From TrEMBL:
Ranges of residues in domain DUF6444: 28-86
Protein name as catalogued: Regulator of replication initiation timing
Keywords attached to this entry: Coiled coil
Parts forming coiled coils: 15-56
InterPro entries assigned to the protein according to its UniProt record, in alphabetical order: DUF6444
Segments for region (Disordered): 56-107
Length: 107
């Protein structure tokens, strides 16, 4: 068997360094636990805010006391369908192509 020499000074130094390392790790764990708790609280607040906003966006003039002008986030459909013609164009054309008679000059 080999002759094993145990150095107590080196062993004490190793134990002291391990104790210091454990203390640093304990401080780090405490710091991380506090940060984790803060993040959990912030997460709960944000979830509540999201729920509030979702409820608000679901409301419109038909299911709340708000006037129709306050309806947002909804694309409104036109109340009447357009014909595609320009307004008033028929009247202008009929006046342009009116047949002139002698009766139109007397009046």
């Amino acid at each position: 068997m080999a002759n094993v020499v145990f150095d107590f000074q080196q062993a004490v130094f190793t134990i002291e360094s391990m104790v210091a390392k454990i203390e640093r790790q304990a401080q780090t764990i405490e710091k991380l636990l506090k940060e984790n708790e803060q993040l959990r609280q912030e997460n709960q607040q944000l979830k509540a805010r999201i729920a509030e906003l979702e409820v608000r966006t679901k409301k419109n003039s038909t299911n709340s006391h708000f006037p129709p002008s306050s309806d947002r986030f909804v694309e409104k459909s036109p109340s009447r369908q357009t014909s595609g013609k320009q307004p008033g164009i028929e009247e202008r054309r009929s006046a342009k192509y009116r047949i002139l008679t002698t009766e139109s000059f007397t009046a």
